[in-house]
Amino acid sequence: MEEVLQVSHASVSQLVQRYRAKTIGGSPFDKELLLQHNPLLEKIFVMVDCGVAIFDASQASYVYISDMVERALGYKAERFLTGGLDFTFSIVHPDDLPGLVRFLELEMDYLDAIPEGQHRLNYRSSYDYRLRCLNGNYMRVLQRNAVLDLNQEGHVLRTLLIISNISHLKKDHSLMTNIISDQKTDLLYTYDTESHTLSTDNVLSKRELEILRLLGRDFTSKDIADKLFISVHTVETHRRNMLEKTNIKDTSKLVSFAEAAGLI
After folding, report:
1. What is the pTM of this model?
2. Which domain holds residue 243?
């Protein structure tokens, strides 16, 4: 299934308002309290190879930006803290912006469909897009998202964002990928930046994910075929299909992308 996308200032404003409307009544951000409840976060905050941010839906803005974001993109953290989503959208590549806005809408739709309460804390997602650095060059980033806490009504209040430079993994800019997952589901959407169409019919199958995980463990096609009791030809067909769905050119980069996105 494909849908043709367009984006306007009005659609961006509606997205911001939708965030805020769902999270009225959230508690103020307290980094120290957050670390007490999530001790692993302190290690994530000092990761040297990834940028880290915390997004507060009640403000449609960020309450934390790590130094790595500033070093990678060149902008002072204050630009993101005061500008929020509006600033981020202003530096997203114009060809990628409609897809990113739609990915965020899909994310909110998915979360709305989850029964209120603790189940929403299991939600994970990732998507890739291009950001304009202060020097004018574009960097392709992979943004991974995990829910940190909920407001009193059970809606997502704050989300942890981990941002990695994947320019070396994905050099073809014609396709963006969005992966949504919880403990039961893995969904994959792609946005074609040339035809401006969103495709929702290319979900990675359970078998493909199984093969991908084994590839991540350095299994050869023969090893995988023996373990899963299928032919080498079938393994190679699944491998080609995954490369086509993600628009990644070789298996090693596919595995690296899947690891970064949290698929394996």
Report:
1. 0.75
2. 204-264
